[in-house]
Design a protein that fits this description.
The protein is α+β, with helices and mostly antiparallel strands. The protein contains four helices and five strands, in the order E-H-H-E-E-E-E-H-H. Strand 3 and strand 4 form a beta hairpin.
Length: 176
């Protein structure tokens, strides 16, 4: 389930590329607001499987648990448009005994323009009872190994975090 859990250091930010599909766009050729969720969740599932050897299906099968979305905060900053190549980033920015917060954002291919930003809060639940349960020890170890500890989730607002990510992108652009 966690093939690479013994690795010394995991990348905290995952990244992948995607092309914005025609069928996912509105008549203005902008990515439909609801489709950002699909792009983010599909990218995250692929990213964690590849980087960490983590499979959501094995958590479900072995522990009879899963994360259930509790809340989204999302900002539509610049439109992603049909046939555009984008980069999708994700990272865990907070977790505790039964909660997980994942940060997602999308940029253009050159990472010069932030298009969308989202925080998703999920609760860890038993699929048999539907009630919250604490993360198992190895799940906590996985989260600790993959969480971006530099993000002070409880101390920063959503809008402040957007500004911070924009600043990160500017710094990356300056170093290129």
């Amino acid at each position: 389930m966690f093939e690479k859990i013994n690795a010394k250091e995991f990348p905290k930010v995952t990244e992948s590329k995607a092309i914005i599909r025609f069928q996912d766009c509105d008549p203005l050729q902008h990515l439909n607001n609801s489709k950002y969720f699909d792009y983010y969740f599909n990218a995250r599932e692929d990213q964690v499987a590849k980087l960490y050897g983590f499979k959501f299906s094995e958590v479900f099968k072995n522990y009879k648990t899963s994360w259930v979305v509790y809340q989204h905060q999302i900002a539509y900053i610049r439109p992603a448009v049909v046939s555009e190549w984008v980069k999708i980033f994700s990272r865990v920015i907070y977790f505790d005994a039964d909660t997980l917060v994942t940060e997602y954002f999308m940029t253009d291919e050159s990472m010069s323009e932030l298009k969308n930003f989202m925080w998703t809060t999920s609760k860890y639940v038993s699929v048999e009872t539907g009630r919250r349960v604490p993360h198992q020890k190895d799940i906590m170890q996985y989260l600790a190994a993959t969480c971006e500890k530099d993000v002070k989730f409880k101390e920063i607002s959503f809008n402040e975090r957007i500004k911070s990510v924009k600043q990160e992108l500017l710094l990356k652009q300056a170093s290129l």
